[in-house]
Amino acid sequence: MTLELIIVPCLKDNYAWLIHEEATDTTAVVDVPEVAPILEALRTHGWRLSHILITHHHADHIGGVEALHEMTGARVIGAAQDAARLPPLTAPVAPGDRFPLGMQTVEVIDAPGHTIGHIAYYMAEAGLLFSGDSLMSWGCGRLFEGTPAQMFGTLARLSALPPETRVCSGHEYTEANGRFALSLEPGNPALLARMERIRALRAQGEPTLPVTLAEELQTNPFLRADDGLRRALGLPEGASALEIFTEARARKDSF
Ligand code: ZN
Ligand code: FE
Predict the structure, then answer these.
(1) What is the pTM of this model?
(2) Is 25 an annotated catalytic residue?
(3) What pLDDT is stored for residue 1 in this prediction?
(4) Is 114 assigned a catalytic role?
(5) Catalytic residue among 20, 56, 69, 118, which?
(6) Could you write out the DSSP letters of every residue in 180-244?
């Protein structure tokens, strides 16, 4: 079944994602930073919004949810565990839940770390992961509420998905994230090659997302607790993968 995937730039550097299945007249948006660009994209394509999916409670992801729900009647899906600080949900979901989206199935994956109640949405058949501010292009979200161990667990779960999965996250942070990755490993050819592609896209004003999980596994310092990265961070031999992640995340905060 063919799905169309549209990236919608919002606010300064946020992305909303539109998923459309023609056969069932199903259109979902993942996160609603603001209403206008999403309405515009729906109008351009002639699509009727049926579902709103929320990854986490930050204002730059839910700011337009209530207004968009009122305008379209789309059902609002978000984490039951975070319902107290999300806009009113018509369909609260929990990690491990599966729900239909047209003919597709969406799996809810627990993704704490950036916030405690953060969830991700995975569509196995389409090979799409909507990761919000958990796993991000060339990086991961800042730890506002969760512990390093929680984000480490989140990234382990998400990065175990099939490598061809396309990762659709919430921000255009790739170039800044890449500068950090390169600061740790300035001579790494895979990182240099990726930065060249990213800069070319940005120079044309193009989004650098989605990205494949395979590319993230190869270049994202938060997914690669290997020896080269351990040495680059000045950690002793035998440092655990969690220790390597924790140190990398702390360095990024002050980069
Ligand atoms: Zn956030
Ligand atoms: Fe955000």
Answers:
(1) 0.98
(2) no
(3) 58
(4) yes
(5) 56
(6) HHHHH-TT-HHHHHHHHHHHHHHHTT-----EEHHHHHHH-GGG---HHHHHHTTPPTT--HHHH
**Does the annotation count 51 as an active-site position?**
no
Element (H, E) at 5: strand 4-10
Ligand 2 midpoint to CA 73 (Å)? 25
Q: Is 110 noted as a catalytic residue in this protein?
A: no
pLDDT at position 205: 96
Q: Which of 118, 142, 146 is nearest to 130 (CA)?
A: 118
Question: Sign of dihedral through CA atoms 85, 89, 93, 98?
Answer: negative
Ligand that comes closest to the CA of residue 145: 1
Q: CA 12, CA 240: separation in Å to the nearest integer? A: 37
| Residue located via tokens 């609002």 | 76
Q: Which residues surround ligand 1, an ion (CB under 5 A)?
A: 58, 133
> Mind listing the pLDDT tens digit for each residue in 196-233?
999 999 999 999 999 999 999 999 999 998 999 999 99
Give the Cα separation of 2 and 120 in Å (integer): 22
Confidence of residue 2 (pLDDT cuts 50, 70, 90): confident
Compute, in angstroms, the gap from residue 114 CA to the centroid of ligand 2: 9
- H-helix or E-strand spanning residue 120: strand 119-123
